[in-house]
Amino acid sequence: MTVDGIGAAFVRLGLRIGRHLPGYVDSYYGPDDIARAIESEDKLSPADLEAPADRLAGEVVADPSLAPARREYLLGEIAAMRTTLRILQHDSPDITEEVRRLYGVTPSWIDESRFAEAHDALAGILPGTDPLSQRVEAFRESLRIPTKVAAPVIIRLGAEFRERARARFRLPSEERCDFSFVRDQPWTAYNWYLGGGISRIEFNEDHPIYIHQLPEIVAHESYPGHHTEHTIKEEKLYREEGRLEHAILLSNTPSALICEGIAQNALQVVAQPDEIVACYRDLLDEAGLPTEQAARVYEFTLASRPLEKVGDNQLLLLYGEGASDEEVVAYGMRHGLSTEERQRRFLRFVKDPLWRSYGFNYTLGQDIVEAYLSASTGRVEAFARLLEEPMTPGQVLEAGRRTSAGGAAGT
Length: 411
Known about the structure:
Layout: H1 3-18, E1 25-28, H2 32-40, H3 46-62, H4 68-88, H5 95-103, H6 113-125, H7 132-142, E2 144-145, H8 147-168, E3 176-182, E4 189-195, E5 198-204, E6 209-210, H9 214-221, H10 226-240, E7 248-250, H11 254-264, H12 266-270, H13 273-286, H14 294-304, H15 310-320, H16 325-336, H17 340-350, H18 360-375, H19 379-388, H20 393-410
Parallel strand pairs: 3-5
Antiparallel strand pairs: 1-7, 2-6, 4-5
Helix pairs in contact: 1-3, 1-4, 3-4, 4-5, 6-14, 8-9, 9-11, 11-18, 13-14, 15-16, 16-17, 18-20
């Protein structure tokens, strides 16, 4: 099998798995004839797809023309695809092993003392006599804005972040994001990459929209997050270099973890802390809210960040310990200072077969990418590498270690 043949076989395998798991193929923008052929053929069962997956892995190992980094990337993606085939046959590993096989990382229990430290920090930012969870929720609600206010703000932020991203990264000349609003979805916002440098970014009107989350969400989904990564990799890897495996985006693979890690760190790459505070000030002004709260909003956002890992423990409780829905909801309300309504939405998301272990990608992906960026002498240059090069979690971690060792040796 030629290198081109390997890319085509990879795409065909991904498309065939996607026929069994809606949403598994997040996007496909490769040759139409491949997609048409898969749609017209008899659906192969997950069991029937195991042998082609095994053969493809063997071809990748045996092909001497593949660069080692590309081989490692492909093998990680194929291993995850093989795991999905086993899961589709109701042969699921435990949740920790599932995450390791799908995403190339191993989740672990987060010590609850980290949540307690975040609670202490939030109590200092939001003093008062009411229970801390009530103070936190009251502050969140004070930052809630309706869709009619949020819509123009989102468009403006997207345009501003686009300028910043284009000044730093090699975005294709013709690319764009279209923003819209939808309902009845388990997520808050989603980037549908359509190929050809175009993304449709949808915000879920059923979820509250908060000022303190808007800059991060817009950067995450558009510039320099998902849209920027997909656009650059499509242009460079698929269009220019002919790597067909990069004409498809799959949800449950190691590349998805790096994708979320890139997006989770996107805002901090294009905006310094003082610029983020200024952004909050502008947003508060546009929403008719007190602008003097801007610094406090930023402090609140930073202090709340460790609570994002509460969801990791909830997934381990739900799928590892067999905890009930009520126990999982109560845990999130207690440690995440969250509401029951928000926790019910969380449950809806993680009970979808496509997303049940995906939640780890946000926290573990953020940690891996942040460690790499922090070890690098130039964060923008390091981020640009992640936007352009397909890397496994292990490769990103190793790159961070090499960079740290080189920096230490040079001091």
